[in-house]
Amino acid sequence: MSFPKGFLWGGATAANQFEGGWNEDGKGDSVCDHMTGGSVNTHRYFTNTIQEGTYYPSHEGIDFYHRYKEDIALFAEMGFRVFRMSVNWTRIFPGGDEVTPNQKGLDFYKSVFEECKKYGIEPLVTISHYELPYHLMDKYDGWLNRKCIDFYLHYCNTLFEEYKDLVKYWLTFNEINCLTMSIGDILSGGFKCEDGPAQVLGLPDTQEQLAKRYQALHHQFIASAKAVKLGHEINPEFKIGCMVAGGCIYPYTCNPEDVLLAQKDMRMNYFCGDVQVRGEYPHFTERMFEEFGITIKMEAEDSDILKSGKVDFYSLSYYMSTCSTADEEALKTSGNVVMGVKNPYLKSSDWGWQIDPKGLRYLLNDLYGRYQIPIMVVENGLGAIDKLEADGTIHDDYRIDYLREHIKQMDEAIRDGVDLIGFTPWGCIDLVSASTGEMKKRYGFIYVDKDNEGNGTLNRLRKDSFYWYKKVIESNGNNLA
């Protein structure tokens, strides 16, 4: 295999999905703390008031807040060289707009980072990962308000100064391109909304709603660029990246209409990447906004801000590929309209996500050819229902198979010339699903005893994939057996 010496093997998590301790030691409530549990067949609900007797999965998560030493020790046992995690904004600034940070929150993350360093694990810290303070939604309408840029920068400055000797790798926003879709209205944008099913609270893709999303996204672009510049001033050794929800999109047929549509849909990987890597909006922006019928407000200095805050590396999540088609009948019969038309050459997971390792190689080559900067795959994995055997073992060969094939294709991409520097599979320890609020949709190498209703001991158990991934890291990707 061709993984370079020093390749960053590890795993990825998010505070709102595994940290817990939602109102302890001065922490405020985030937008995610207002999201109830759900499932594949029933909605998660958003409630403006935390309701007594209602289950909110993020309130406990898997209790990393009290068990972080145990969990980091398990990551170290696997040989992690990097651990991707997020800081919960409301643990540092409970409302998001305070001047003085919460010292107990600062102390907690310092302890986490020091614990990582004890084992030689580099923290990779996502600054904003669906953890917008609820107060910023309620009072300011979230990222629609340009004031959020200043609140975010104050938050970043606090993190950079506090942890400048403990953290080297940072990501400004998680899957920033999700804000272009209705799924991002609450978690990414923090738009004000009424109580109701979270999956449908985002308004339809009307002209007005699209304008709101792209205006909020522009504010995040400016915030990210300013954060990159600020971070480099505080510590020139910082490596600060963007994070994009990546997707490989094929034309469903060789009909030129399908080919052109697939090319257009692949812009989901480029729109945010161009702004954050190249420092300017891509060439197709003017026509895209014209077709949407929207105009976003930019300040005179914004162009220079974007140019002065280019990221050091591009990171992405990758789970699946899709197909694009202009054939309305094919879309109707696919049963997969949101994710495109199903590819007949691929298998699917229990949740209908199509499994395509070679699509990752395709996408990595495509992105590296466009940007020519280092790349990390910071989310990848298989959500599945794991069976806990009577003897406490969990046999998850299907997860091993999934990851093995994706690692093989990452190796191929490196051989192709892609500067791939790290891999952090998603949910390295079982955690709450962001999309459904479930626990039974598991990704981890470590099993956590907790069910969809929040019941369980929270005991940690090693799955078969735990021992397999340990061998992969020990061999730097040479032993995939």
TrEMBL record:
GO cellular component terms, A-Z: cytosol
Keywords assigned by UniProt, alphabetized: Glycosidase, Hydrolase
GO biological process: carbohydrate catabolic process
Gene Ontology molecular-function annotations: beta-glucosidase activity
PROSITE patterns assigned to the protein according to its UniProt record, in alphabetical order: GLYCOSYL_HYDROL_F1_2
Family annotation (SUPFAM superfamilies): (Trans)glycosidases
Annotated Gene3D superfamilies: Glycosidases
Top-level division of the source organism's lineage: Bacteria
Family classification: Belongs to the glycosyl hydrolase 1 family.
Record-given protein name: Beta-glucosidase
Species in which this protein is naturally found: Anaerocolumna cellulosilytica
